[in-house]
Amino acid sequence: MEKNFFCPEPQATEKLGLLLGGLLKTGDFIRLEGELGAGKTAFAQAVAQGAGVAPGTAISPTFNIMNVYAGRVPVRHFDLFRLESAGELDFIGFGHYSGEEGINIVEWGGRFPEAMPEEGLVVKITVCQDGRRFSFLPAGARYEELCREVERAYIGH
Ligand SMILES: Nc1ncnc2c1ncn2[C@@H]1O[C@H](COP(=O)(O)OP(=O)(O)OP(=O)(O)O)[C@@H](O)[C@H]1O
Ligand SMILES: [Mg+2]
After folding, report:
1. Residue 45 alpha carbon, nearest atom of ligand 1
2. Annotated domain spans of the chain
3. Can you tell me which atom of ligand 1 is nearest the CA of 62?
4. Which of 18, 26, 40, 80 is paired with 60 by a 20 to 30 Å CA distance?
């Protein structure tokens, strides 16, 4: 079931990201969608930090397509914006990572829907006049449960 969170400023985005990152486990797949400048990288940085990556380590993978950070488990951060075809995903071994140890966070995965795993959490970020709306769209039992955990933690905050 879809869960919505509203973040009026970057600090709220950071808080939500830290909270999600803290709940992630190895094998988890998070796809961030939203227009240019919506806040995908800002959110990914907080998620990575929540997953144990040192603050300030996560940077936008716009030019190098994939960054790997040391967290509680490896955290892989992708930005597929500059890829021209799904075939190029093979060059970075994209298809293998979802089964490996670590957490995967993907920006612009919606450009290649056929290459995305069936199960995962899509976080859709919408720019509003007074901030950002985060819609969590889970696919699969693990991600339904994850959304419920995020909601519980968010309310308890
Ligand atoms: N809740 C919020 N309200 C207002 N501004 C925000 C909020 N969260 C993040 N921002 C700001 O939005 C901008 C988002 O930039 P960011 O690089 O993260 O976007 P992006 O979606 O990754 O862009 P791209 O598509 O180019 O990769 C940052 O300047 C950040 O401070
Ligand atoms: Mg980005």
Report:
1. 18
2. 3-155
3. 27
4. 26
Domain 3-155 has CATH 3.40.50.300: yes
Query: Each residue of 43-57: pLDDT tens digit?
Result: 999 999 999 999 999
Q: Which ligand is nearest to the CA of 127?
A: 1
The residues near 67 (Cβ < 8 Å, ≥ 6 apart) are: 58, 59, 61, 76, 77
| pLDDT at 156 (0 to 100) | 75
Q: In angstroms, what is the span from residue 10 Cα to ligand 2's centroid?
A: 14
Measured CA to CA, the distance from residue 101 to residue 21 in angstroms comes to: 16
Write the pLDDT tens digit of every residue in 87-145. 999 988 898 887 789 999 999 999 999 999 999 999 999 999 999 999 999 999 999 99
Tell me which H or E stretch contains 146: helix 141-155
Chain centroid to CA 101: 16
**Cα torsion angle, 69, 67, 27, 109, sign:** positive
d(CA 87, CA 130): 39
